[in-house]
Amino acid sequence: MTTPLMSGQAGASESTLSNPGFERGDLSGWSTTGAAFNGSVTNQPGWGWGCCFNQQGTYHLWGFAGGGDAPTGTVTSEPFTLTGTGMASVLVSGGRNDDHLYVALTTLDGTVLHKATGTDDEAYRRVTWDAREYLGEQLRITAVDRATGGWGHINLDDVRVGLDEAPDPGLEGLAAYWDFAEGQGTATTERISRSADPISYVFNNAVYKPNSDPLWRTERQEDGVLSGALLFDGYSTWVTRAASQTQLPTDGMTVEAWVAPRAFEWGDEGKPSAIVNQQDKAARRGFSLGVGRHGVWQFGIGTGDAWYETAVPQAAALAAGKRAHIAAVFVPSEGTISLYLNGERVARTAIPTTARLARADVPLLIGRHNQPAIINGTFAVNMFNGLVDEVKVHTDALTAESVRAGHEHDMRTFAGGSIPEARMAMDRSRYDGDRYRPGYHFSAPNHWMNEPHAPIQVNGKYHIFYQHNSHGPYWHNIGWGHAVSEDLVHWRDLPVALAPTAGSVAPDGVWSGDATLDENGVPVLLFTAGNDSQRPNQATGLARPVDPGDPDLVEWKMHPTLVTIQTADLDVGAGRKVRFGDFRDQDVWKEGDTWFQLVGSGVQTTSGQSVGGTALLYTSKNLTDWTYAGPLMVGDVEAHPRTGQVWELPTFLPIGKDDQGRQRRALLVNPSFPDGPAEYSSKYTYYWVGTWDAQARRWTPDTTEPKLLDYGDHFTGPSGTVDDKGRSLVFSIAQDRRTERAHYDAGWAHNAGLPVQLSMRPDGDLGVSPIEEVSRLHVGEPLLDINEPISVADANARLADIKGDMLHIKLTLERGSAGTFGLDVLRSPGGEERTRLFYDAPAGQLGVDRTRSGNNSSVDANLGIQKGPLTLSNGELSLDVFLDRSMIEAYANAHKSITTRAYPFRQDSLGLRLFGDGSVVKSMTIWKMGNLTD
User: What family is reported (predicted)?
Assistant: First the structure.
């Protein structure tokens, strides 16, 4: 007979047994003595008080079925000639008793050649015997039951003769082994059963891009044979092995693996990120090997009536970015669970000697928790993020010497006996072909980002940091991503700069902040340090580069103490109190010998009613000792509800001096709405322009009326710096406003806007325009270049053949007699889909009409129209428009901007068309744009 376990085995031949799996429903072909096996052939899949036998086919021999545990006897097959591979194998389960309860391979005279007993469990496991020395001889299979009392029965199924491959001596004693040697494909072969286990991965069946394989790291000869591995992306990658395929020992086991975590999860619901598990902890069944917060790894095992767990001390925690060999050994005979790191025991916990593994009827999963916490209704957390290799489940408890020897054996396979580098850098090519992922707007290389922040120029290079979750495209366990550029438009990814770290000022999150230079010209980061054990859980931390001479400033070290802590008694005005607990997102600059720090917060009445957001001002002479100077400004949320109850990302930048020599500055804020309404969240950046007196610590806005910087509902999270050209530059996050399901399917969330330059306009208002370096993204000659006035109709004739979603369009339109005029982008041939950038002359407003943009994957059902006031310049509208797949940015008259998104359904929504009869096209140039990493 053949079974799924035999598929694909070379040299298989037909068994000479006539009823090897009892599929006739009886004992024909078998003889019995005694009463133990009378009536024991059954088609029951489970034993009534549990599940499952996992038999092959329909029928099997359940020694308990005929008369329970009391009867004794034997059942013996007819003689067969050993042929084929010389292997004989059987499925065995039932009671454990080597002397009185077993299945054996015997000679015709009854001499036992090999035998196997049960494991006090009804679920079958396969036992394979190497009998090649008896090839061509007549043999038998016999089951012996001379045991009575509890577990006094043995079970048998699926006898295979000459079908299995010869065992690999290196696999002896293993119940399961995954070596991840494939290097490609969507399945991995478990070497003991030789079955292919599926690898779940988001792009196996991609939604927004072509399908692609999971993230394999193939073996490199220069590193050694164990240098290959499977890279688990942290949210969508896991291996599944059905419960019916997994046969685990109950009275002692060892689980080991080579792992290299890329980062560590927060540990939602107190659960570790599973490396390998088959657990139902609520039922106290199964086992789990995983890594918790800050690299502390642990092993748990369920006995049915208890769950026993042990974890390593912090000193033996795994290190992010480093390979390590870990092993967990369950030894009930000694009453211990021991954990080993790189061959050395690092933890040991006492357990009862009566403890036995109670198997959980759930799949065995590698990389995913059997019972994960769920974030945003979509993302399963408690998942492993990093490399996994050489996962082994042993059938017994290895000794300390065996664990050490196994580790040393593996080490000898590495080139030079050294553990190779863990190759886990996030690869942007993973998203190749994604129709919505921007190509030249900065984004995290993988997964989630929100605001870029702490921009700084050091030795001619621009550095940007950003809020980043390396585990998946959702907000959680945030650290600081890092990238560097020489021109502000081409960026090179660097390793994570700061991450939540045990024993630091930021164990729970490293949130937004800023960068400055210290008294020696060395860059310093000031960040929002998250510590959920304190209230407030937000304070200012400081970090310095480990090597200030490193041109990339890759490594950073946190200062051991906080440098600014919010107190509840801060003076924010009579009858008012600070919103205690909201204290984040630093903006830092230096004037003379003094550093200034703004921190976003809110102000309430003493009775708790919200007054508005605020930017709290601090001063320092050394960056570590700060003095509170009061609120720079307090908002009015009642009069201006869209400015929020809290201000985040306060950004305070110089924009020039007025005719009296006074320093003019712009204050930009990101409104936050902890008290609601949610409809205003993550949409706006407001600003005020005024004069700043550093000596008096006094900011005088021209008006208390807030103004919108960008009319598109997507420009948020400002952060700024002044570069060596004296330019005030602002970075932002361009909210993608997609559903959580779309984030999951896409594998990324959000991207930055283009850096913009602030200026002071002649009327004293704030001007915003794209930086000149965007021209470095142009690819080749212009696709269109109109440099003399023509009609809209004539211009459209020249636009007819121009298609694209990565374009820069520079356009000047004269209103003429038109009432409303502008440009349609991402337009389908018939106009069924398009995004309309328009100027409404009678209303004096610049706007975007997205009612036909397409909202494939958008969280908003109705995209609507967004607009705001803009005065034409001599009757002209000058636009810089940047299309980058789902991104649309338009800068108008160096004064206002629109940042918006479009997710067209149609593949042909790539056209351009002007509208507005009576208007005149003064000039229009279109360039194709390259990628930010080119």
Answer: Belongs to the glycosyl hydrolase 32 family.
Residues 934 and 928: their CA atoms lie apart, in Å, by 14
CB atoms inside a 10 Å sphere around CB 293 = 19
Residues 6+ apart with CB under 8 A from 270: none
CATH fold of the domain at 30-161: Jelly Rolls (2.60.120)
- Residue pair 700/688 in contact (Cβ under 8 Å)? The answer is no
The DSSP result for 99-134, as a single string, is: TTEEEEEEETT--EEEEE---SEEEEEEEEEE-GGG
Read off the pLDDT of residues 114-132 as tens digits, 9 standing for 90 and up: 999 998 888 888 888 999 9
448-770 CATH fold: Tachylectin-2; Chain A (2.115.10)
Q: Does residue 14 have a pLDDT over 70? A: no
pLDDT at 165: 84
The Cα–Cα gap between 165 and 813 comes to 77
pLDDT at 106: 97
Tell if the pTM clears 0.85, that is, is over it.
Answer: yes
The span from the CA of 899 to the CA of 714, in Å, is 6
Asked if 750 contacts 767 with a C-beta cutoff of 8 angstroms, the reply is no
Q: What is the pLDDT of residues 866-892, one digit of tens each?
A: 999 999 999 999 999 999 999 999 999
Q: Give which of 67, 46, 48 is closest to 124, Cα–Cα.
A: 46
Candidate from 1-15, 177-191, 214-228, 512-526 with smallest mean pLDDT? 1-15
489 Cβ contact list (under 8 Å, min separation 6)? 440, 754, 755, 771, 773, 774, 776, 777, 932
Give the bridge partners for 925, in sequence order.
Answer: 785, 810
Residue type, 415: A
pLDDT value for 30: 97
Residues 6+ apart with CB under 8 A from 462: 455, 456, 484, 485, 486, 487, 488, 723
Give the pLDDT band (50/70/90) at residue 225.
confident
DSSP at 262:
S
Specify whether the CB–CB gap between 865 and 851 falls below 8 A: yes
Strands (E), 214-335: 215-217, 229-233, 238-241, 253-261, 273-280, 285-291, 297-303, 307-311, 324-331
Angle at 181 (CA atoms; ends 180, 186), nearest 5 degrees: 60
To the question of domain 778-928 being in CATH 2.60.120.560, the answer is yes
Instruction: Write down the mean pLDDT value for the chain.
Output: 95
- Side-chain-side CA neighbours of 546 within 13 Å: the count stands at 7
Of 324, 322, 323, nearest to 341 (Cα)? 324
- pLDDT for 6 equals 29
> What is the rounded CA–CA span in Å between residue 250 and residue 118?
10
Query: For residue range 513-550, what is the model confidence (pLDDT) as tens digits?
Result: 999 999 999 999 999 999 999 999 999 999 999 999 99
Give percent above pLDDT 70 in the chain.
98
| Per-residue confidence (pLDDT) for residue 732, from 0 to 100 | 98
Residue with tokens 């003769």: 161
Same fold, 175-204+214-413 and 778-928: yes
At residue 50, the pLDDT reads 67
880 near 855, Cβ under 8 Å?
A: no
Dist CA 318 CA 273 (whole Å): 12
- State whether CATH 2.170.150.70 applies to domain 175-204+214-413: no
Domain locations along the chain: 30-161, 175-204+214-413, 448-770, 778-928
**Any idea what the Cα angle at residue 498 is, between residues 289 and 293, rounded to 5°?**
20
Please choose, from the candidates 143, 134, 133, 137, the residue with its C-alpha nearest in 3D space to the C-alpha of residue 77: 143
Phi-psi region of 65 (alpha: psi -120 to 50; beta: other; left: phi over 0): alpha
Average pLDDT on 300-305 reads: 97
Q: How far apart are CA 26 and CA 717, in angstroms?
A: 74
The mean pLDDT of 829-846, rounded to a whole number, is 98
